[in-house]
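Hi there. Long-time user, first ticket. I'm pasting a complex I've been working with (about 1401 residues overall). I'd like to know whether the download I got is complete or cut off, because the file seemed smaller than I expected. Thanks.
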Amino acid sequence: MKGISKEFSGNKVLNDINFKLYPGEILGLVGENGAGKSTLMKILFGMDEIRDTGGYGGDVLIDGQKVKFNSSEDAIRQGIGMVHQEFSLIPDFTVGENILLNREPEKYSVMSELFGKRLNTLDRKEMQRRALKAIERLGVELDANRKISGLPVGYKQFTEIARELSKEDDEKVEGAKGIRLLVLDEPTAVLSEHEAVALLKAMRMLSDAGISIIFISHRLQEIIDVCDSIMVMRDGLIIRHVDKAEADVQKIAQWMVGRTVKQERVVKADRHVDDEIVLSVSGLKVEMPGEMVKDVSFSVRKGEIFGLGGLAGQGKIGIPNGIMGLYLANGKVEFEGRPVRLNDPSGALDSGMAFVSEDRRGVGLLLDESLEWNVAFGAMQVKNRFLKKVGPVRFRDAEAIRKVTEEYVDLLQIRCTSTKQRARQLSGGNQQKICLAKAFALAPKLLFVSEPTRGIDVGAKALVLEALRKYNEENGTTIVMISSELEELRSICDRIAIVHDGAIAGTLDATSSSEDFGVLMLGEMKEA
Amino acid sequence: MKLKLSRRFFIRLAAIVVILVLAVVMFFIGKQHTILIDNNRAGDIKALDYFEVSVDGSPLLDMAPMLREQFLVTGQKHTITIQWEDEASGQMLAVSVNVKIPLTQDMVLMSVPTFMADMNQPQSVWLTPFEAQVVTSTAAEDNAVVLDDTASFSSF
Amino acid sequence: MDVATIKEKALPMIKSFGLPRLIITGFLLLMFVIAPFANVNVAAGLTNMLTRFGMNSVLVLAMVPMVHSGCGLNFGLPLGIISGLLGATMSVEFAFTGIAGFLMAIVLATPFAVILGAGYGVLLNRVKGGEMMIATYVGFSSVAFMCIMWLLLPYDSPAMVWGYAGTGLRTTISVADYYGGVLDNFLRIQIGHLAIPTGAILFFAFLALLIWLFLRTKTGTAMTAVGSNPVFARASGVNVDRMRMLSVVLSTWLGAVGIIVYEQSFGFIQLYMGPFNMAMPAVSAVLLGGASVNKASIANVVIGTLLFQGILTMTPSVMNGLIQTDVSEVIRIIVSNGMILYALTRKQEVTR
Amino acid sequence: MKRPQVNPKELLINNLVPILFIVICIIGIPLSGYSGTYLLNEILSRLGRNSFLVLSLLIPVMAGMGLNFGMTLGAMAGQIGLIFVSDWSIVGIPGMVLAAIISVPISVILGYMCGTILNRAKGREMVTSYIIGFFMNGVYQLFVLYFMGSIIPIKSSALVLPRGYGIRNTVNLESMRKSLDNLIPFNIFGASVPLATFILVALFCLFIVWFRRTKLGQDMRAVGQDMEVARQAGIKVERTRVLSIILSTVFAGFGMIIYLQNIGTLNTYNSHSQIGMFSIAALLVGGASVDKANIRNVFIGIILFHLMFTIAPTVGRNLIGEAQLGEYFRVFVSYGVITLALVLYEMRKRRAERIALERGEEVVA
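Hi, the file is complete. Here it is re-exported in full:
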């Protein structure tokens, strides 16, 4: 094996990526969310998604030969294995059954002549043997007969890796060359310290056996510990590809986030923010799957725009969802000096807070109702606006609703055919504006905005940010904005708190340097 | 690969043929026929005074004139045994005859007097197809069926 | 205008109207067209259709609140019907007659409907996502339970109990002497063979108006939002479980009223297994009117009931006239269940 | 890494339905005044005639499609087979075999249809299969009541209605009655045992055990637990689900034939429509749930459910003097059991989701 090299170019998300990987090398791949890591790996693994969206430019070369993967099976045949972030395991199957899922060795059965191969019986002995072999190669202790559902996450991860390793035993896949390259996408994110150590050890073993590994992780220390070389990606470009010896946590962090600031800060100089604390949160704990908040404390001053940043999955999104009562939360939240009832959305709404959810389609909108409904509904239920009283009964006031909707359509430049149009038919950006309009209609004293620019185009992005800024300026509304894009936060916020591992890693002024933010995001403050 | 596929094809074909053959065999051996044993005047031939009859070894049944008895049998080939008292000798005589009922014939009538008149006649003379009379009615109550699916609770 | 543009324009129209509905409307029209050739009186057919519309429309209306709040199709309609039957039998027991009997039946049924509906609502709130199957079986079990109760409850009006035993209610009880036809004969319009049961239609219109108004109140709006997107509603401070429960109570009450309206027109109270299969026709009627598993309007109810009852009344007479065969029962089964199947398997409904 | 310890309260809730039934039976048996021999005889006969039907429900449960209310389709196919066979007056075991052969293609077609429709209604398989049962009942009636005798040749006047087409209310299967049950005569404690039927049922059980160990069985279990993961692993999810329904339908057809040979008469328009409900109730009484069912559940369920069924009318009469009351009671219990089991299942599912969430959090912490 001479070494693997591949290059991609011409893609928007990935721009002219070139790198080489040697047998047995462990390559650490780091970068912010959306830097293009996943896309790169998807191309490498021949996922359908890539082909469906128009393929890719450039070439992938294995052993100096150009290869073209039409499907994941092709990639597997070339000896590439991938372990995804989400487990794909069957809970009630044993470890062994999961390792060999849909690749079970079979014993001949007479019935199969009549009804097809699927009536062959499984060869349990052979299954056991292959599963054990794969586990052994991984160098961990794992009972092949245990059920997956009862295992800790770490062992599930091992099962996934063992599955990739076991693929070299398959006779079904013709021309299989045995596993040579393993892609691990954030395998340690869900592992405990102890389990992560075991995994890293296993990785070294595999690498000694000549298997190359591409290791994606946000835990920089791990990367430095285990990798031979480190590649940093940002905005679809390879920023650095360095040898392990040349890298340290500080440098990597800087490469990751430090980009040329494109967006100018547009905050007026004479901006005045009171020192009065309007919202104080202490010891907040939120059970939101994938965004667990463990212990968060912070306070927001009246009239400011407060940013919450951090990498995905660290818990920043859980904070507003917890405060607004959408997910089970406990802790102390005080708004304007009064405690806020948790676990009850109406409690938070009644106290004058509003929330623009990151899940536009799921939480933010009534997709099958008119824009009017979407804009007015919250205010109608919480503030009793847009209602007219007939006797003791309160009916909705269609005229008022239409008017207010038209107002916001003009204000936020929402593109729609009429205010009666269904929310589903709007583009992502316009849907986001409707969500904002809904929140504005509530006339909140404090507004949470979660990932307001996710998945919308550049023009709409600027408009949304501008609208938020203007709203803050004109009405003095306090805004807490949550975003994964640090630059976006820095362009509009006064102060930014970085969330790491379910807690606030630190709060910085928006004008602080990228490097400082980067270090906080990676949670490496202590070492720094 | 091609060869293997055709092998499975033939095996499947064979299996289907086996099942079809089985179905046909079941049809032959399971087909129920009704044999009517008749002791009525047939044309010029008078009814017999008395005889006993048995089909495929069933218990003997007494037959007086004007009687008609029915036997339910399965399969096509059957042995009918007839016993009677010989007037001359006063002895009981017995005769067994093998009949083959046409496959699709539900009911046949055996006229014993005809048979006894001349046992060497071909089967078709004394064993004739018989059609039961069909009562047709368009009266609503005769044609009513119970479609209500709550009706069958107690029958379970 | 060439064929392509016509096609272009017609296709979305057909799509929004729904192919099955189109077929059934076409079929119904065909029935009316060929009726004279089959020696069937069209006016009598229409009368029949309108009478059955009056009979069934309130039962179909009982689907609307639950669909609105996202509880799915109300297969648990028998529960409401049972409340109605309790009210109806008690009204007869206390010997109210005429319009008073009818109103008393509704009044007496109301507490049962509210209590049963509330319990049913609590249950459905605990099994979100599996409502329809459970609703079906709640309906069935309650019918079976009431079969026992009809035997045991201490009724003793001679109009209702078995003559020989003196206890236990009869399977069918005539309401002719009590409130039979009070709505149908109210302001009845008779033109030749055509008769219009004005009272029944007005009563339905009155209830439909109430529901229509309710859906325009703050609470009604919240209910619709719960059905459209429960997470959104919750995030907007609406108590989702309470809204759902309210809708179930409303549906149950409408079911109770519906059966009483049905009885006054039909002339009999049907007990025991009577209510067993009453949910299916109502469910399919509202679907036929263009409702889906989580959207239904008053218009859907009106159109659906007219179409459904039209098919039921016209098909047997026309078929009988043409080929002397009564296939109405079979057609009813195929149309009503086919409609429900269609609604359950529509792609866009699955993403709820 | 430890198994979750068994909590007595949870054990009670998980087995609530069987426990309830045991209690009903313990109270009911003395009240009914039936002799042990009579009950044994009844139970053995009912066990023989229902086992096959109930067993046919296991395969779709394995494939995660819930309780197959569409098994009525198989029952219809079996009945059509029997109608033809009685028209041709094929009797006894050959008649049963022939009816089974005829039912297979019909079952396969109906099962394929049902499976395909269910693939379009993922997540609401049960209510959909239930409606399919009703819908096909209409089609069945169209065929049997209007086409048979007119388009489809049926000539036996014992079958066809006097008007010349359509099958009569009941089809007499006297010539087939108990031909399988009594094939191998066997008695125990004065009760006759349908030994041949039991042998057939045992063979079917063996088939199910074997089937679980085949590749297809393994795939079905995988699909049943997580469709997405199975799809990622390259299993043809849709096809596997359709196959499970087809298998279930075919076996339900056989089961119906066995059931009817014991009963001896076929209620043309009613026999099938309730069979699904009673089979499912029996399975649930045995402690099965929507996502878990095994052979043990089948037999426990049939014994308990039918014990209740046998004694209910007499208990009703002895207690209140109304046999009718007992009849209604057993209908109520059948439906009640299904309701209870469905409610418990849904509630357990929601609780499991909750627990999974908490556990996930623990690991992170």
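A couple of notes from our side: Residues 1-30 of chain B form one domain. The first strand of chain B starts at residue 32 and ends at 39.
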